[in-house]
Amino acid sequence: MTKEEALKKIVELVKTHHIDIREVLLELKADQPQNTHADSSWMNRLYSYLGGILIFAGICALIIMKWQDFNLYERVTLTLGFGFSSFVLAFLCLKYPNYQKAAAPLFLIALFLEPTGLIILLQEYHLMLPIGWVLIIVMIYLTHQRIAIEADSPIILAISTLIFGWILFGYTTANSRIVLNLGFGFLIFLLGLYYREKQYQITTPLFLVAAVLEASGLLTLLSQYTSILMPTWGVLIVSFILFLQHVIAFILTRQTVLAFITIIFLYSFFLAAFELLGVPERLKWFVLSSSLLAVSSFINHSKFKSIAGLLFFISSLALLLDTFAIVRNEPYELLYLVLACGLIFLAIIESSRVLLVNASLGTLCFILYYSSQHFPHTVGWPITLIIIGLLLIGVSGVVIKLNKKYM
């Protein structure tokens, strides 16, 4: 019997005898041999962390005892150098099963020593770092990035990018900041395209980091070397350039994260364009939010539906807030309830929990607002509160039922 035939037979037996999948999983877990090392795994981790703390405490004690005798380079070597070495050594340990337990304490050492060394540099040079130190920090960051990519670890990439980005862009001149932003951004963008072929999970944060860096670099460039009125014209031009870059990359690769970034830059372009055209604020946000809601609905029925939830959240929140600002204290303010209930209906059609939550909260908040405006000082206010409470319970029950039935 082949594997496919065995699977068909299993499915047939499950359907015939009405067996729940959870019962099958429980039986499979019961038949698996118990791992003799499972009970001691927490003890091994405890020893690893305690070992890291003790090693770190010993290094700190030694450094503190001799700190006054060290010059700048020795202090940086003992903190930044030793921390970076520990970081690299930790990843080397992860590649060998016999040494994996040593990775945790080494990561702890790197976590504390590397920022300490960078802070020492900043305190010494006050405002601006010399180009030599900038290059050293860039090399250290690129090593962190390379290791994070090889380990397919977005959290390491995010932490290292935040720390080193703050150091470099906070303590460099405008010219250096432009080069670093654009250079880093485009390099990270290319890395995202390269590692996309290898199915790395880290490609998503790589594209997001690249988008932020490139946008920041272009805005800084325009503000320094052009007479363009900032920030509106700058946002318009930068959004258009980066929209073209990411839409071309999206057409070639069909990456979901590139679709999301493309939409963000497209709407930031229209936001700046409406601002320059003098479109009224409320009309501008109503058009953008309602159109983004339609785009979200379209994406929800495509293979890129993983970003639909976030787009539904942004568009529905903006639409509800803008509509409330339009109808507030107007004779037709009850039309807000029509919109909120319409969004609940749309949430059911789209099977979107995010949209359902936003629309439900918008409905309940408007009921509270309307009651406080029209029944605040009347005898019936306590009764109104009771009614509101019953409405809250009733709407909550309806939302739960809708969630179970249609989501």
From TrEMBL:
It comes from the Bacteria. The keyword Protein transport does not apply. The chain crosses the membrane at residues 46-64, 76-96, 103-121, 127-143, 155-172, 178-195, 202-222, 228-252, 257-277, 307-327, 333-349, 378-400. Keywords: Membrane, Transmembrane, Transmembrane helix. Signal peptide: none annotated. Coiled coil: none annotated. This is Predicted membrane protein (DUF2157). The lineage of its organism: Bacteria, Pseudomonadati, Pseudomonadota, Gammaproteobacteria, Legionellales.
